[in-house]
Amino acid sequence: MSNDSINNPDSTIERCKKFWFDDGSIVLQAGQTQFRVHRSLLARSSTVFSDMFSLPVPPVNLASANSEGLVEGCPVVHMQDSDADLTYLLEWIYEHPIASTDKAKSEPNDDSLRMCYTIETLPRISALLRLGMKYDFGYLSRRVAQGIAQQPTNILRGTNFTHDASLFYLPDLQPGVLLVKMANFLFEIGFFSHLPPVLLYIIRDVSPEEIITGVETPCGERVSLSPALVVKCITGKDRLAQSIYDAFQWLCTGVGIISRDCQNPSKCKRNMRTMWKAIKWPLPSLGVAFGTYANLLDESSKEGLANVNVALSTPKTPPASLLSQSHSLHLQNTISQMSSSNQKKRKLSEEENIPTCTAANDFQRGALWFDDGSVVIQAGQTRFRVHRSMLSRCSTVFKDMFSLAQPGDAGSEESVEGCPVVCLHDSAKDVEYLLCAIYDHPNAGDPTAEIRPMPLATLSALLRLGNKYDIPHLRENALLRIRAEFVPLSPDEISCEAYKAMECPDVEDFQAIVPMKIANLAYEEGVFSALPIALYDVCAIATVEQIFDGCAYEHLSAKLSSPLVRDALLGKEKLEQMMFNAYAWLKEEAFLPRCDKKEACTRAFRFLSNEFFRPNPLLHFALRADWDALVEYVEDEKHTLCDRCKEKIQPRFDQERLAIWEALPSVFGFESWEAVRAMDRITI
Predict the structure, then answer these.
(1) 529, 545, 568, 493: which is closest to 684 by C-alpha?
(2) Rounded to a whole number, what is the largest CA-CA distance in the chain?
(3) Which residues belong to any copy of the BTB domain (predicted)?
């Protein structure tokens, strides 16, 4: 039946030919479709229908619009379900009449029990389970639930998941579409214990962009995950990468793993490194993690891994056992994290609530209150007595405002100590920052003076209110600091130090707040040329959870605005892939055959490789670290590179860094640096 027929109350009521029995004793109506069926079959399968039919039937009053009428002598029961769902339910009842009998319950091998494993569409599974639970078709609910559980739980036992499994098969659908539909279905019906395996396969088979924006079907329809599942997939992928990295890191060095009586330790160590690269490069291999351990082990054993004896808690533990233990370890950790549906999330408020002006007398005086002031500025419950001339001199908005409202024009005008009151719809803190900057900020009158560190809250207030009230020198002061940190003209201008133009404690949590605040501010005020670097810093500093939920440090908090969350998540994925591609040469152990200190340089290369990609790339090295910073980082960790290697690596490093810089705007949805600068609403 078409949905148009169901939802159109004015359409003619139709009879379902498939389920209209001449000897039926009850008429079920779903939408505009009627089904004449047998009361006894419904009552036998469902306690709800059984109880309903056992109740005394009220006398029929054909004059009452709310009363049940009769159709061919049968009472009509109005169902609050779609005709399609009711059709699925009746098909199960009539095509498997034995399914509700004691015989079926006592003979689990009966062919009728296999119906749950041959359902061809998720809509049918969904309808059977939903109506089975709603109307207490106990046997139906249990069988469908067992069928749903069969495939996902196989993953926990280490078996492979097959997309063409008959239970979940949807004709002509891509695997990603099927997985998204399956995840939404499990989430909708509350089968949370079966969600993690399906989410794992979404992480593996569906791109981050499709996870966020939806998967397109062959017919052009876009199927999207529910917002809660989007968060679980994106954060779960990050945790999963770390889990795989931790579980298999022993493959990297082989220290304590190679047995003393190994016949060919060098070859075994090389093969273990090969396995490590297969798992970790270019991203922790989810394919390896979800079912190809045995194949990987077989391939390596051909090269001599069969001679490796692994020593863990017991001597000579075979490699297969260690792989199996690692497999179980990371799956258990990841699944327990991904299936947690009760994680408490912090409530982060980016700005204080702004009260409206009120006639109450419980106002407080702000930091600026001059006895000879000529106007009272009110923001929320705070008042500031300042000079009309000072505000008019620096702001065309205030100048026009004061020129329009002359003293004595309005007898009912509110006044305080003889001064008119002007209500501003801004927070009291922001107005205080603005007035303090006008009166006594060290750089307020000279935007060309040496840039001094400015608190982040002050910078935000000066830019927003400087724009709003047209105070150019305050706006320019804020823009100078944003320009210095977030609008470089080349990678050489990117500062490797943490935000020198802003007052920032050297705390990791606070470091994530700064780019989030700047990104929100740039987006709101139209300083789009600051967005690429600000979002890059968000991706490099903030965790996936912080991108979703925000972060806080002491009294200050920040949360990305909704449009920027998507850009940051997709940008983080793209930047990580760019890092993998740009610095793939780090995995070459013998980068320079004529190296003077080959062993030391090889260790340094391995260290950089592990640091750059552990388990996700350290995005700080993409732009915020130049060559000198990279060398200093290596030497701080007691590693050295010979002069020959440095001479060969530096041009390659600078070249890749420049390429990332040029591609950065496209990572966040802009065409080029020229295009994003042209979008600025403020000249910067």
Answers:
(1) 529
(2) 103
(3) 22-102, 371-440
